[in-house]
Amino acid sequence: MSAPPSPVTPASARPPKLPARLLPSSKYFRRRSSVQQLQYVASSSVAGTYYRTFSVVVFTAIVLCLMLYSSLRRQVDSKGCNPAFYSPSYAKIKSFDTDHTRFASKYSLFLYREQTLDNTREPRGVPVLFIPGNAGSYKQVREIAAEAAHQYYDALFAKGTFRDDPGSSSLDFFTADFNEDFTAFHGHTLLDQAEYLNDAIAFILSLYSPSRNENGDDTPLPRSVILIGHSMGGIVARTMLTLPNYRPDSVNTIITLSTPHVVPPATFDWDIVNIFEKINQYWRKSYSDDLVGKNPLASVSLISITGGKLDAIVPSDFTSVSSLLPSTNGFTVFTSSIPNVWTGVDHLAVVWCNQLRRAIAQALLHVVDTREPTQTKSLEARMEVFRSQFLTGLEPEVAKKAPLALGHDTLLRVQDTPSIISKQRQKRLTLRGLGSYRRPQVHLLPIPADLSESKDDILSILTDQTLELDGKDQRVDIFLCQSSHRNTFDSDYLHTFNNVLDFSKPDSKTLTFVCSNMAQDKVVLPASTRDSKFAHDGSVFSYVQYRMGDLFKYQYVAVVDSYADETSGFVTMEMIDSTAYKYDMHLDLKSSLSGDLTISLPSGRAGFSEVTLSGLSNSLISYKLDLAPSKCADSEMFAPLIRQFLSDPHESKYFPNARKIQIGFHGAAPFVPLTSLPGGSFSEQQQTLKLQIWRDPTTACGERDEQVTLRVSVDMLGSLGNLVIRYRTATAALPLAIVGMVMLMQFNIYDASGTFITFGAALEAFIGKALPILCLVSASFIALSPHLFPTSTLPFMDPADQPAGSSDADASINDRPVYRIIRDNDLFLGISDPRLCLLGPLLFTLATGLCIVVYYVVAIVLLFIATTLDCLDAMKLQASPPAGTDSPPTAPSQTIPRVLTSRERVGKFFSSTLLLRFFAFLLTQLFVGLYNFVSMLAVFSGGKRLITIFTLLLIVSAYVPFQFAFIVVFIVHINTCIKSLRTQSYQYGLSERFSPMFSNFAVSILMLMIWILPINIPLLVVWIHNLSVKWTTPFSSHHNLLSIMPIILLVENMISGKMLPRNTQVKQQIVTKILLVYLIVYSCLHGILNAYWLHHIVNIFALWLFIVYLELLSGGNYSYNSERSGNGSGEVDSELAMKLPQTSFGSSSVIATVPTSASSTATTLQASCGSSTTVTSYFDRKLERVPSMNGKQ
């Protein structure tokens, strides 16, 4: 049987051909209003090909693929963490119950013990409390706790290191079990944890008594606890000090691991954003002049450790604490800077990385002093320990010990020979092949007597030997010496020295020196050889550097070579003029665009050079550096070693055997406050990248001294990967702004013409008309942002910024306290670098591409579901005989064959095996059952829906968060969209229900809800997690009914299928536009840092749309039919009608007639589902449904 013919579109319903005067090139078109021009563009987009849309989608796909590739493959730090081994045991402290805290039923407290070492369950050392982060486990304490136990007991019983220190003690590690709460998404959870831990600290301190103290009864009991916080646990630690139940001075040392201090990683919750703002203000104001003498944080030290680019969860830029407290109380350091770690660490490995946990455990053991009530050393002593353990030693704030030593630790006596004093260029001493003399040898390098003109010069010493103060197996020692004219040495005088080295002969002239060992100031560097690949390979160099002005009391640098056999070891030392080792490379805007900058270091061939890369300060831009290889590479003592570094935060990266390296750093970053000294611009005083280069200063191959060429270029592909982690929240905020602009276009056309065009048509019009303007505005905003951001003064002084001592005449000027200026960098993309002005257009284009992809995916899914359900219903209709008959209806002179039901058709399709039939049956049941569940609320009558809404609001107000209600109404609205697309909706044409324009409007509302869905899901995840932990406890926040009621009312009103009435008054149109403009502007300027408010803006917009619906019910001044649009005479402007898009949901421009009876509907369904018509043609017929131009269906 052939399929019945498809309905033919009458000629009168076809759109007339567009007159030539309406073409965009005509003068008539240029005289039309912007709304009318937009209507023409939209109609042309529908009728023509979507070439703009396709271009944006292709561009978005390419850029996103490049960004993903770059983030995974380019500019990624090497992974060098070694695994840790431990024998953990956890003792739950059950006595910490509801009598001590109101959260005892939800959280738990444990004491960690390392098996075979800690045999007692009672605390007897110095208390340390570990705080897990977002979804973290209390068992993450085991790595650091186990290492601290091994270091203490191994040193105590094997070497006796801590036995001679009366203030040393073991550490008692406590840890809190938060049931892996999501503190990053829910502020109330964070506050609950902070309150619980304050109660826990009070309880922990009460556990200590004189009988439990391992150091005896005379040792004071602990009065404070050391805190270690991982990720959001660091924020919990800082929040604890701001709560009412905090015991003063109970915390004085905080170490945070990958903690976002300045910017919350997820801004979907108002409480989280508010907590960050309040605690940051509290910490800043605590160090202000207003609280001098009564600062509650005066003795608190805060050390922030971060992992760098390997951390794909928390941007390392957010871990900076320089805007929160002065450098006397804390600093931020990267793991790639910490000696003997020298590797990037990801977000989870920061607690188990073997090299890092050794450094942390060693630092904790050295800050302990049980003789103090706080159980720790003073703030100055603690900061000195932390700087020596975590910083490279090359920072200016790290004090040198040997030049400032009051006494001397070594007495050196050598034979006076002409060769003992170096004559190599007078300022350089290079020793190759240590031990070549087969006996101990001493070499002296004279220090100039007059250092007044060379006080800024440096003494640089590099060796591949280990330098230790008490190294028993050490074969090389380096000293700062001054001559001694004392000829006799009694025993009392010799006992004043730790070491006496006598290389003199009885019958020869002897030189005597009193010396200070340089090992106390040595810096370890990763070894750089021809076989080196990474800094964390294992071998090390020893390096010492002094300012010549600090060596005024010394006369010689002495090198003692004690090797008895020749080795490949080396020592190179030289005095370098400040003008000979400092260079400046300026990368201006032109150089950035060209992407290339080259500098040649002179042929003087100093062993140490420092290059300042001016203009390289933004962490979003990555670079490539090429170092030209030396012609004498095969004979060099060591391969070139490069250190890239920033001083604030303390970030260093080492590149051994450097040739081609990738430079990525964390300088000026998005949304991180910028700081500057008074009198200078932020752009000039941003942290500038610097390079330090060590290379062999000798030329053993016979070649003349050669220049060293450095070439720096921008790594465009590597820079794309920097955007991924820093602008994750922008994937919700910026697309929502695009949706707002598209809907603004739709409402403009709807208010002017009475036709609500499809979202896809409006997107195409937006790309051609508004997107270029948006890109231009965003680029201009970034370029002008340095002049737009307000500035303020930090409330505290940083001693590093204060002027040095000055003369009395200048004391009033130079000794005036200096305060840093801070600028909040929180608008739009959080950047103020004009060189990145193209970033705004790039992200807006990507956001547009994401909107396009999401829209068409949603459209395909909705059409597929609607079509599938139509076919299933048509099959049921064909298979069931009409009431009162025994056979299906037949047309004259032909028999209609029985149509199989949906289950029969699916089963027949999978009839090859019984197993496939079973799966087909399950899939069919699942599909039909899921749809019935989704549409449950929609099929209720008005009274039942009101009862359902009331019940939903009731449980929101008492038990569940409003995000749960949003998910429910989101599902209900999906059902409404599907229902508007189903073929059965033809029968509603005469009653103005589920019209094509309603379908367009419903899908636009769905797009709006889709982009605020990511904002609501995290809170719903927190609620589900709390439900699994303790379901009887109501959710602690987000029960405001006004936050969800307008959306519920709008979605409930749209279930009826009635189109939003058209605004005919200017005031109502202005309200709609103002709300959409507010959504657009806020999404662009504040949406990334305040994403939670986007939901509330959409909620306010939904309230207005519901009010418009109410005006329709009350007979207000609104219009639904197109009869009341146009020229006001009941007819539509013919010119306007020609330009309107004649489609629904993005189809072709043909107008189809609508079947008006049930029999014709069944015939159409049979033709579309039971014949050989393709699915594509069926989609086309489904989409070709629009109201006729006289206002009737």
Automatic annotation (TrEMBL):
- Which intervals hold domain GPI inositol-deacylase PGAP1-like alpha/beta? 123-367
Q: Which UniProt keywords apply?
A: Endoplasmic reticulum, Hydrolase, Membrane, Protein transport, Transmembrane, Transmembrane helix, Transport
Q: Which residues cross the membrane?
A: 732-750, 770-789, 842-866, 914-934, 946-972, 1001-1025, 1037-1055, 1075-1094, 1100-1120
Question: Where is this protein localized, as stated in its record?
Answer: Endoplasmic reticulum membrane
Membrane topology type, per the record?
Multi-pass membrane protein
Enzyme Commission identifier(s) = 3.1.-.-
* PANTHER family (alphabetical): GPI INOSITOL-DEACYLASE, NEGATIVE REGULATOR OF VESICLE FORMATION-RELATED
Record's family? Belongs to the GPI inositol-deacylase family.
Report what the protein is called: GPI inositol-deacylase
Q: Which organism is it from?
A: Myxozyma melibiosi
Q: What lineage is this protein's organism placed in? A: Eukaryota, Fungi, Dikarya, Ascomycota, Saccharomycotina
